[in-house]
Amino acid sequence: MQRISLLNIAHDTLKKHIQINDTVIDATVGNGHDTLFLAKQIGPLGKLFGFDIQQSAIDSTLAKFQSIPFTQNLRLFHASHESMKEKIPAEYHGKISAIMFNLGYLPGSDKSIITSTPSTIKALNAACTIIADKGIITVMAYPGHKGGDLETTEIVNWYQQLNKSQFQTDIINSSMNNGTAPILFIIRKHSNHH
Ligand SMILES: C[S@@+](CC[C@H](N)C(=O)[O-])C[C@H]1O[C@@H](n2cnc3c(N)ncnc32)[C@H](O)[C@@H]1O
Q1: 102: which strand partners?
Q2: Is the pLDDT of residue 177 over 80?
Q3: Domains in the chain, please, with CATH?
Q4: Global pTM?
């Protein structure tokens, strides 16, 4: 339940922020629930990029979009999100309004295929370089499962060294704050004009 309620906060935050026709990224496609959510926010002419290291995740998400073609501009990469800057055409850099990370493993799938701390940190750095001014990055982290504890600690360290004049950072803990409950990180890039 905790997992669901924090994810709802992530969705609500993104929903308020994303405009129709925006360009957005799902950094962890998985079963495509978040990809579909993002597609609904940007409408049929928005641009949506997605990443997953599991081909099965890419295939099942593409299949979902075939039955419900929410967006005409979906591009999914069977690649690690740490390569997002290289994979996404340069014309979109600085124009991406939202990037969503939902870390850990895919529920109902192989639990050994999880996000790894070094590539997550590289991906977060890449995300910060291609996000638009006033853009938003959300990161759901799960310290309660194997590997997720270290990953969450490293994200906190990463988060603390972010340039505060460029980025505003918020951490949202679930009410069950016992060290194993999920954590939502929200990173907003300031506009250059103030
Ligand atoms: C919690 S699941 C994502 C759930 C998904 N957003 C959904 O709505 O179903 C995490 C996903 O991250 C993927 N993943 C793990 N390491 C990755 C990496 N380096 N780059 C991209 N995706 C990765 C896993 O394969 C898994 O599908």
Answers
A1: 140
A2: no
A3: 2-189 (3.40.50.150)
A4: 0.95
